[in-house]
Design a protein that fits this description.
D-Maltodextrin-Binding Protein, domain 2, 2 domains, 11 helices, 11 strands
């Protein structure tokens, strides 16, 4: 092997020093993080179930990290607007995304020209919670069960409108799948979030929706609950059957809430955020509060998110193809 002369050694030493110096700012930045408030982007408006989960997690993280997490509601596009904002953000740990399935495993099916790749452009941090939906209808309708809804829709084709928080949202997909397996017609009316659509449902401007945060409207008597979409009954509504129990065999819909960051977010920050988030989610008070809102705490490894996104895209594409679903 040729021997190294002094000049070669000098060049090598300088290269090592240069690489070490280049790494110092990044290491120092990670050590000083967070040094200002963290922007927590939620892709739906305030008041919905995504906002509930985000604020509970955000409050806990703020206490542990020593900086406030400012909720930034960015509705629209079935979650694409908020998710794309974070996907393109600087990966310094000061811009994070609190997301449901909508911009991760549904949008790739319903939006052929995605502005980001949910697997490559968003870094998973922690799975937060899961939840089922409430199937609710306007009180003026003679609909008190899933069977009534199916029967009414078949007798009055095209007369019922259903609301969702946007094209490509989980609710949009859930209802379209329900339409296919039951053979009914419902006309889609997309909104930018759940708050206004629930008001319009109560007022009769739309007649049906599947929603994750309808409890206050149900208990106030503004809308009528006829079923829930989980594999088991919602403990908050023990007398209400699941869609499967009501006769739509095999039908279920469960959504997820997760925390993500932009591409190239340093692993050290991912690890710190995961550890802190899991600590928040283990708090009995946080778990009890989220359970009251219909959220079942998940927690755990970021790897669970990546697996769920990949499997979710494949399953949703299979269902959409089989059902010949059209998302316009």
């Amino acid at each position: 092997m040729p021997s190294m002369n002094g000049k070669s050694l000098d060049r090598r030493s300088l290269l090592i020093c240069a690489l070490g110096a280049a790494a110092l700012p990044r290491a120092a930045s990670a050590q000083s993080w967070p040094n200002r408030p963290i922007q927590l982007v939620v892709h739906f408006p305030a008041g919905g179930i995504a906002d509930v989960g985000a604020r509970a997690l955000g409050d806990g993280l703020a206490s542990l990290l020593g900086q406030p997490l400012v909720i930034d509601n960015r509705p629209g596009g079935g979650g694409l607007i908020g998710a794309n904002l974070v996907a393109k953000a600087k990966p310094d740990g000061h811009t994070l995304l609190f997301a449901t399935n909508s911009p991760l495993s549904f949008a790739p099916i319903t939006h052929p020209n995605m502005p980001y790749d949910p697997v490559k452009d968003l870094v998973p941090i922690v799975p937060v919670a899961s939840y089922s939906l409430q199937v609710v209808v306007n009180n003026a309708l003679p609909i008190h069960s899933v069977a009534d809804l199916i029967d009414y829709a078949k007798k009055h084709p095209g007369k019922l409108n259903y609301a969702s928080p946007g094209i490509g949202s989980g609710i949009h997909f859930a209802v379209e799948h329900f339409k296919h397996v039951t053979g009914i017609q419902l006309t889609h009316v997309p909104y930018k979030g759940s708050s206004q659509l629930m008001t319009d449902l109560a007022g009769g401007y739309v007649q049906v929706t599947f929603d994750g945060a309808a409890r206050s409207h149900i208990e106030a008597g503004r809308v009528r609950l006829i079923a829930t979409t989980g594999p088991e009954r919602d403990p908050r509504f023990p007398q209400t059957p699941t869609v499967h129990e009501a006769g739509v065999e095999g039908y279920k819909f469960v959504a997820s809430q997760v925390l993500l960051g932009p591409r190239d977010l340093p692993q050290e920050l991912v690890d710190r955020l995961n550890t802190a988030s899991n600590e928040v989610l283990k708090d009995p008070k946080v778990r009890a509060y989220l359970a009251e809102q219909g959220l079942i705490v998940t927690g755990g490894s970021p790897k669970l998110i990546t697996q769920e996104i990949i499997e979710g895209i494949a399953e949703n594409r299979r269902i959409a193809t089989a059902a010949k679903l059209v998302f316009e």
